Amino acid sequence: MGQDKLLRKDIIMKSTLYRKSISILKYLGLLVATILLFLGLNFWSNQLDDLHIQDVKIYNTFFAMENGKPTFYLYGKLKPTFASYSGGAFTQYNNSNGSVYGYNINKDNVNIDGQQTHSPFGSKEVVFRIKSDPKHGLTLINQNIYLTDQQHHKIKLYDAHTRTQPHSIDQKDTQKFIKQNKLH
Q1: 109 closest CA partner among 62, 149, 147
Q2: What's the start-to-end Cα distance of the chain, in Å?
Q3: How many angstroms from the chain centroid is the CA of residue 147?
Q4: Strand order in the sheet with 115-117
Q5: Beta 109-113 vs 84-85: how paired, if at all?
Q6: Local structure of residue 99 (DSSP, 8 states)
Q7: What number of helices (H) and strands (E) belong to the chain?
Q8: pTM of the model
Q9: Rounded distance, CA 155 to CA 39, Å?
Q10: For residue 136, what pLDDT is reported?
């Protein structure tokens, strides 16, 4: 009789330990799966995507002088909840396929290309800074400036013919900036 009590106690102890071990393993598996899911969603949401024009609200555009060169600034904010801008000031560099990333230039126009992520945790601020570079065909003052996307939507930020900025708070008439800085 005494041995049956010891045997029963041993069996109960082992089965309790087994159940606790299985329970702990289940919770650890659930924790690991949750972490992997979160990391996967975070990786997916931070993938770069084309900036969609309809998602951008432009607050201000203006010209400023930097090291004796006109520099164009754009400030805005993304409207959708699950979108955030992916970077700060864009500068020109060549992609591996030879195209210019950040903005495209031709004689009359500068098209600013932006990218965004879909992270709900990222900044919603949109900021572009482009410094004139006449040697590479970027005069800014003499070119129309557009914010564009891959669907060929455009927002005109600066009109070189009228020298106006429709989204500017303080420089709608750029003639004053041009005269103050003796530009032509």
Answers
A1: 147
A2: 109
A3: 14
A4: 49-50, 115-117, 84-85
A5: unpaired
A6: P
A7: 2, 12
A8: 0.68
A9: 36
A10: 79
Residues in the chain predicted with pLDDT less than 50, given as ranges, are 1, 86-101
Find, among 114, 132, 126, the residue nearest to 71 by Cα: 132
For CA atoms 7, 10, 16, 20, the dihedral sign is negative
Residue showing tokens 């750029």? 174
The set of residues, in sequence order, having a beta carbon less than 8 Å from that of 103 and lying 6+ positions away, is 90, 92, 110, 111, 112, 113, 130
- Classify the C-alpha dihedral 75-51-122-132 as positive or negative: negative
In the block, residue with structure tokens 């708070």:
169
Assign residue 16 a region: left if phi > 0, alpha if psi is -120 to 50, beta otherwise?
Answer: alpha
Burial (CB < 10 A; 0-12, 13-18, 19+), residue 154, is: middle
According to the model, what pLDDT value does residue 106 have?
82
pLDDT of residue 100: 41
* Tokens (6 digits) for 4: 């049956």
CB 114 within 8 A of CB 150: no
3-class secondary-structure state, position 161: coil
